[in-house]
Amino acid sequence: MKKITFLLFSALISFGISAQDMVLTGAFDGPLPGGLPKAVEIYVINDIADLSTYGFGSANNGGGTDGIEFVMSGSATAGSYLYIGTEDIEFLNYFGIPPTFVSGAASINGDDALELFDNVVDTGGGVFTGNVIDTFGDINLSGTGQPWEYLDGWAYRNDNTGPDGVTFVLASWTFSGINANDNETSNSTAATPWPLGTYVRALSVSDNDLNGFSMYPNPTSTGVVTIQTKNNQPLQVAVFDVLGKKVIAKQLTNNTLNVSSLKAGIYLVQVTDNKSTTTKKLIIK
């Protein structure tokens, strides 16, 4: 599953985002029997050839860090999402996709903090060390009654924020509210669905130079959107759903994109004008 985003180091500085390779983007406390599914989403910023140098841990009930409880494996490409679940059956049933990894480290209960690590080293005896590169919640405080509580609900990182190192930044997150997942059986039919796979990173300098870019109406319920730039050139447009599937690909010559074939939901629209490319979130009602 891949989302198309373009990054330059200078843009990261201008947006105040540190140059790490991944970032925590979501936590989910499920409504199915046993509190399933449990889910953690991680967004990959840059290509990673060896994920075994990255780890994850959950700090339960305000008891402080539990350190690195799970070490990743394999590789990952920029713009992809990694999902950690406690099991795969109910995860697949609820979200329609399997988790990337299965680990008990994702046993979170809506009041637990999360930590993401890099430079992970195996020191022997099942003990790992590493550096904290991102944090969700206060590891020394139970989330019960706190603004970041997500009991039977979810938390999702706001676009163009993070990673935040060892300091949790509440303003970088959006929350469903507690019990928002109660009685739901599928994310696709939920009244307040977890917006998995929708986190967007900062655009590159060339993206920002895509002169006069605009897309409207957004949200749309009319079946069409207008996409404009100041350059009088045809636009290459690709639309992706939240699973990373390309659902529209076409060249625009009249600035009007027909989206009437798409179901209500959140999409990513990639627009290329000559050599400049930008990606914007589109909501269809």
Number of strands: 17
Helix content: under 10%
Described by strand count, sense and barrel closure, the largest sheet is: 6 strands, mixed
Q: Compute the gyration radius: what is it?
A: 19 Å
Total domain count: 2
Q: Work out the helix count.
A: 3
Q: Estimate the mean pLDDT confidence.
A: 87
* Low-pLDDT regions: 1-19, 203-209
Give the helix/strand class.
mainly beta
Strand content: 35-45%
Give the H and E element order: HEEEEEHEEEEEHEEEEEEE
- The strand line-up of the biggest sheet is 6-5-2-1-9-10
How far is the N terminus from the C terminus? 23 Å
Query: Could you say which overall geometry the principal axes of the C-alpha atoms support?
Result: globular
What's the layout of helices and strands?
Layout: H1 9-14, E1 22-32, E2 36-44, E3 55-59, E4 70-71, E5 81-85, H2 89-95, E6 101-102, E7 113-124, E8 127-136, E9 154-157, E10 173-175, H3 205-208, E11 214-216, E12 224-228, E13 235-240, E14 246-252, E15 256-258, E16 265-273, E17 276-284
Parallel strand pairs: 5-6
Antiparallel strand pairs: 1-2, 1-9, 2-5, 3-4, 3-7, 7-8, 9-10, 11-12, 12-15, 13-14, 13-16, 16-17
Entry keywords:
single chain, 285 residues, mainly beta, Immunoglobulin-like, 2 domains, six-stranded mixed sheet, four-stranded antiparallel sheet, 3 helices, 17 strands, disordered N terminus
